[in-house]
Amino acid sequence: MSRPDLSDLAPFVAVARTLSFRAAARELGVSPSAVSHAVGALEARLGVRLFNRTTRSVALTDAGRRLGERLRPALDELADALAEAADRPDRPAGRLRLTLPRSALAHGLSERLADFARLHPEIDLDLVVDERRGDVVAEGFDAGVRIGELVERDMIAVPIGPPLRLAVVAAAAVFDRFGRPTEPRGLEAMPGLLRRFADGSIYRWEFERDGRAFTVLPRPRVVADDGATLRDMAVAGLGVTCLLENQVAGDVAAGRLETVLADWMPVFPGYHLHHPSRRQMRPALRALIDHLRRRG
Length: 296
What we know:
The protein is α/β, with parallel strands linked by helices. The chain has helices at 6-18, 21-28, 32-46, 62-86, 102-119, 172-178, 227-235, 245-254, 283-294; strands at residues 51-53, 58-60, 94-100, 123-129, 143-147, 156-159, 164-170, 191-195, 205-209, 212-216, 219-224, 240-244, 258-260, 267-268, 271-275. The strands form four sheets. Strands 7, 8, 11, 12, 13 and 14 form a six-stranded mixed sheet that branches.
């Protein structure tokens, strides 16, 4: 049996991490057929099947799982070593792979990342827009962006934006029909446009005033995993929703939506860039953190 080289192993690790030949191909910048061919060649060399494939899914075999557990740390370490070799404090370089939610991009992060890319042409950004609270280390990211209270405790978290606040909004016609509540319990009988998290749970709206904190969940009318969809549904007059203030500020100013219970809405930590603890941070990541903090 001939020994596989690194060009055989990288596609396998990418498919093992994403469980998708298409996603692995996008990550590696090649075609899905090239990834499939590379994995097939590796299976032929080893004499074992590494993945069970159907038209709808990809799953690791026991042999594939064992190989992935051994290879992933070694390849990650090799990738870090190569990146660090080209990445100097006086000239940050290499690829930064980040996971971040769509709401952060809509909150101005897209423009700040574009500024960073213009200032650092030798740093390539690989952005994965995902609402899940994924594992930065296990999924091979250099860093992630999440709201402060959602960052795992074992991560180093750096604030990159101001505190945030939610807003309860609906079209005026909805409040005309159901009334304008003066306290949160008044929302429970109203048609709710509710946010579903990646784990399937529904966000319960949080309120606080005079030392009292509690949650409320209106009657489900529409459930979605995307804030922009809920905003559109609210503008269409389907019900009341609870979103970040910046997501609805333009609609409120234009009269398309109306805000209630503003004095019950607490302020909470804004977006943080988080990364695993390492003795020596790559200059490219340090440059990104410094850039985002200056323009936070």
